[in-house]
Amino acid sequence: MANPGYLKLTIPNDITYLPIAQKCVRETASMFGFAGEDIYKIELALEEGITNIIKHAFESHEMNTFDIICEKIPLGMKIILKEKGIPYDPKQVPEYNPGQSVNDAETTGLGTFLLKKSMDEVLFNNLGNEGKETHLIKFLPAKNIKDYFPPAELTLEMPIQEGVKPIIEKIEYDVRPMQPHESIEISKGAYKSHGYTFFDEHIYYPDQIVEMNKTGELVSVVAITKDRRFMGHAALHYPEPGSPVAEYTFVFVNPEYRGQGCLTRLTDCLFSLPQKNKLLGIYSYSVANHPFTQKTILKCGLNDCGIQLATSPATWEFKGISSDSTQRISVVLGFKYTEKPEPVNVYAPEAHRQMLEKLYKNIGAENTFLKPEAGAPVFEYKESVIYTRVYATEETAEIIVVKYGSDILQELKVILRELCMKHIASITLFLNLEDPNTHFMCEPIETLNFFFSGILPKTHYGDALVLQYLNNVSLDYDKVVAYSEAAKEILEYIKKRDPRLK
User: Dihedral sign, CA of 178, 194, 248, 211?
Assistant: First the structure.
């Protein structure tokens, strides 16, 4: 069946076809709801993206084709430029500095700079033998929560100990899936609990919350009093379409309603809802600058399986909770299987096998730990397939190794250097434990100053070994709060392997 939100255009690598591509994308953007200056920005970004491909992905005399894919996404569109030209690494292009005068400025990197200024997100994916993709994402104009309420109504709640008194008497309330008109209260509640420091800014746009729930990317439940007052919210967020795992996130209860058992009821309701996709597991990140969210997550049945250091700025706000704010915030990774897991073959790096066995046992999995039959890594591909996601507001990034190629170490070095130049503070690396090459490649990858973080089972790319890298981050381990005995053991294990302390 045809998808009305999807269009694919294949054109030659000839700049004379640019107007055709622009007209096609312009009309598609208009169909998707864009107008005026936004269409101009989309056309500008497309021109830069196509020019980059023709200039860098193909020889001047080479005749070839590449694809332009337009895809409708919640409240916006994604343009994918896909080609199989010669290797080109946009991360090698120097950063353009707009602060310099025109006469002094080095124009190298200007095209990439314009791409990022015109679009909301720009991603580059190396697909190995399948070529490369540039993703250009633009969201439709949407109202932020500050557009709905006057400043007086958005005054941050004072900490409970300084004046906001929780309601002592028990009140009656309902917990159920969100209704579209309640998305405004969700955004407002997130602001009142965390200011504008929430790690994902979708939470501040009510229309985006509604659209994400329609598509199934987000599943929201709310607590509402009998007199229709908003109490709190919790959600499952699927990191990508069809993902077998979802993140338990956007969880908050307005300060005056804390102590009513609201969070437990929200969680029970959320976890019992039928899901659009087959859900194999739920994971969560609990902040480690106070013990309260860790206690809550454990009560929800998610057990500790890792700790990621310095993943959020110290400016993150927790209204009504006293916590340390003198260093970047670390998180404890928790996981829960939603059904009894089938055993998988785990090719654990020898150095971490004992800890991995403990972590799997802690989350209730009985896997088979194997050593590869080959005595060395076997690369089926020359080029690795690696996805990189950057979360600019958090100054963090994720690197996902989908397939190992013989160039894996060199590619990771290039990506790591680029992220460090962009002042990304904390970098998380995911390696597939079901791939025999992980048994061999973990140790050489750790020579790049990656170090152990934990596991994340049932991802799209298999059970993942999680490593981390800190870029000039000052971190005092004594200020990282690990609540459970398992978390304390994980933190001590990580500390002993942190290359910055050796």
Answer: positive
Residue 86 corresponds to which tokens in the numbers above?
């010669």
Place of tokens 């679009």: 119
The whole-angstrom separation of Cα 276 and Cα 65 is: 37
| In contact, 379 and 409? CB cutoff 8 Å | no
CA distance 101 to 113: 16
Domain architecture of the chain: domains with CATH: 6-139 (3.30.565.10), 145-337 (3.40.630.30), 352-501 (3.40.630.30)
The pLDDT of residue 160 is 40
- Report d(CA 310, CA 68) in Å as an integer: 38
Q: Pairing state of beta strands 76-83 and 132-139? A: antiparallel
Cβ partners under 8 Å of residue 452, min gap 6: 352, 355, 467, 468, 493, 494, 497
Q: Where are the alpha helices (DSSP H) in 57-109?
A: none
Calculate Rg over the CA atoms of the chain.
24
What b-and-e string marks burial along 198-230, b requiring 16 or more CB atoms within 10 Å of the CB?
A: bbeebbbbbbbbbbbbeeebbbbbbbbeeeeeb
DSSP 439-468: HHHHHHHHTTT-EEEEEEEEETTEEEEEEE
Element housing 93 (H / E): none
Residue 400 corresponds to which tokens in the numbers above? 């996902």
Cβ contact 372:346 at 8 Å: no
User: For residues 490 and 477, what is the distance between their CA atoms, to the nearest angstrom?
Assistant: 12
Q: Which two tokens stand for residue 481?
A: 């709060």
| 113 burial via Cβ count (<10 Å: 0-12, 13-18, 19+) | middle
The structure tokens listed for 345 are: 């073959």
Task: Tally Cβ neighbours within 10 Å of residue 46.
Answer: 25
Token pair for 155 = 């005054």
Compute the CA torsion angle 371, 376, 377, 381 (nearest 10 deg).
Answer: -140
Neighbours of 425 (CB within 10 A): 22
Angstrom distance (rounded) from CA 384 to CA 167 = 56
Tokens representing 83? 């080609």
pLDDT at residue number 104: 42
**Is the pTM of the predicted complex or chain greater than 0.85?**
no
Give 10-residue mean pLDDT values along the chain (502 residues). 77 88 89 81 87 79 88 86 72 49 44 68 78 86 64 48 68 95 87 69 83 90 94 92 91 87 92 88 92 89 96 63 71 95 95 98 96 91 87 84 94 90 91 97 97 96 96 93 97 96 82
Q: End-to-end alpha-carbon separation of the chain, Å?
A: 58
Give alpha helix (H) positions in 205-249. Answer: 206-215
d(CA 246, CA 236): 6
Give the model's pLDDT for residue 51. 85
